[in-house]
Amino acid sequence: MRALRAQMKTQNLEGFIIPRADEFQGEFVPPRAERLKFLTGFTGSAGIAVVLAEKAVLMSDGRYTIQLKAQTDPDFFETGDSVKEGPENWLISNAPEGARIGYDPWLHTPRQIEKLQSALSARKITLTPAVPNPLDEIWTQDRPESPGRNLEIFPEHIAGKTLAQKKKHIAQTLRDQGAFASVLTLPDSVCWLLNIRGGDVEFLPVALCRAVIYAEEVRPVSLVVEAEKCPADILAHIKGEAEIVEPQAFLSVLHALAREAHAQNLPVALDFAHVSQAVLTHLETAGARVIDRNDPCIAPKAIKSGAEQEAIRKAHVQDGVAIVKFLRWLDSEAPKGGQSEISAEEKLRAFRQERSSFKGDSFSTIAGFAANGAIVHYRADEQSNAVITPPGLLLVDSGGQYAEDAVYGTTDITRTLAIGSPTPEMRRHFTLVLQGHIALARAHFPEGTTGAQIDALARQPLWREGLDFAHGTGHGVGCYLGVHEAAASISPRGKDALKSGMLLSNEPGYYKEGAYGIRIESLVLVREAELCRETGAQMLRFETVTLAPIDRRLIEAAMLTDAERAWLDSYHLEVYEKLAPLLDPETKTWLRTQTRPL
């Protein structure tokens, strides 16, 4: 901290902001970009720190309230809620009037900077680009190298559309917007567009790359990525549709783009919520007129093709086999003692690795026993690793990336398991969560319905008891891409309409701090249902694609309605019928018991 403050003083800064982000603004960042972790020790997937000359704060959202306190040294950092309070309010209360607060323009979006500066203006606090990044100036020893794995082709028979077809669609979107071109900086958008995948980031099969796509569809996409990552099959795959540009030439590409767009009196489209502020600054400095438009790949990427949907179903069968083997193992071994959160996590990964289609986890597995289960995005380490000893609840949230032949998909599943005899309170709370999960799974709703409109279905059983959970009910999921995908969500902030072909999670929960956590999560595909008899509107419904039993020992059957019982029995029958043929006799017998009708 002392070294950082010395660097801040060198740059005439009274403060510096450190987000958990890299220059690509993706969810997962490579080790080399884990600046927030390096400075604070906090390992959560979302957070921001502000360092002043005499004090500092570390903030994250409601998922990490407990983790912030556990991982933060109070001698160096205050902690706060980045959603309820926000760094702007902390700065208003703690920074001197007229202070110059530095930020790295590659690590913040224009929307973030605009929000911060607007709030700080009343106290004449100024946000100032800090170049070079003062934290990078002190992080010089033992800093990981940049990743460098080769690109791979994502098969067109799974994608459902060729690179050329996707490029044509996006070019038309840009023409509809009146834009000359768009700069794509989210790696998953670029990889989706070009039907490629990579391995530069743990959990996310993408290359760290950018692209410029033009409204004139005959022009090749400028793919900004290291040429050494592009083997011959990739070059053949993109031939005529894209050209490789080395990353060190990215600024030259932006300046040339700005000049050409200016000459044609057309704007360049950027997504101010996802692109780095530095990209906007360079374009405007070079003379471009820039308009704020959504990343044109996000919406079409969210709607899975028919082939992708079938590949996703097959991936969930593969994942379900691994989950069932793990659950049977846990059922046998946990009561004996000697297992821990980390050993459970390792065993689950070992079962997934038995499937040749398994390429890796889709995020860090959350295996939280007892009080650790109440930490929404908990990650066990050697210090926190709890021994699994009855009685208690074990919450296991995990996922895999699958890619082989006809099996392609990204999975995300949470099951909460009774270790020993659960208390009546545990059973009641679990059943309330289950009722919310079933209510959402059974929902029918007209086209145009947003996630915010149906979020309450999953919360209503808990609300009746004066309970709730501090996270969204559902997020989008990619097809062998990001486990958290934009375009639609089921949450109070879910303003985008749900559409047929989208893949989302259904994951209500309840968390009793210091005691236990409960979450039931399955992935669901949005499907067309019947037409509304009154209006003729197309109705939509959910198809649950995750296949794994829900712990019967935690269900208070008397609380369920007949319709809820029928749904659960039907779901469990589907789990058994789809997975049993792939299981050994002992595991098959165990699954039969776990999925018998209530």
- CATH fold name of the largest domain: Creatine Amidinohydrolase
Strand content: 15-25%
How many domains comprise the coordinates? Answer: 3
Q: What's the story with the biggest beta sheet?
A: 6 strands, mixed
pLDDT average, as an integer?
A: 96
Output the radius of gyration: 25 Å
The number of distinct helices, counting runs of at least 4 residues, comes to 19
What structural class is derived from the secondary structure elements? Answer: alpha+beta
Uncertain spans: none
CATH class wording of the largest domain: Alpha Beta
Task: Explain what the structure shows.
By secondary structure, the protein is of the alpha+beta class. It has three domains: 2-138, Creatine Amidinohydrolase, Chain A, domain 1 (3-Layer(aba) Sandwich); 152-297, Creatinase/prolidase N-terminal domain (Creatine Amidinohydrolase, Chain A, domain 1); 303-591, Alpha-Beta Complex (Creatine Amidinohydrolase), CATH 3.90.230. The protein contains 19 helices and 28 strands. The strands form eight sheets. The chain has a six-stranded mixed β-sheet with strand order 4-3-2-1-5-6, sandwiched between helices. Strands 12-11-10-8-13-14 form a six-stranded mixed β-sheet, sandwiched between helices. Helix 5 (110-120) links the parallel strand 5 and strand 6. Helix 4 (86-94) runs parallel beside helix 5 (110-120), helix 14 crosses helix 15 and helix 16 packs antiparallel against helix 17. The radius of gyration is 25 Å and the shape is globular. The N and C termini lie far apart (58 Å). The model has no long low-confidence stretch (mean pLDDT 96).
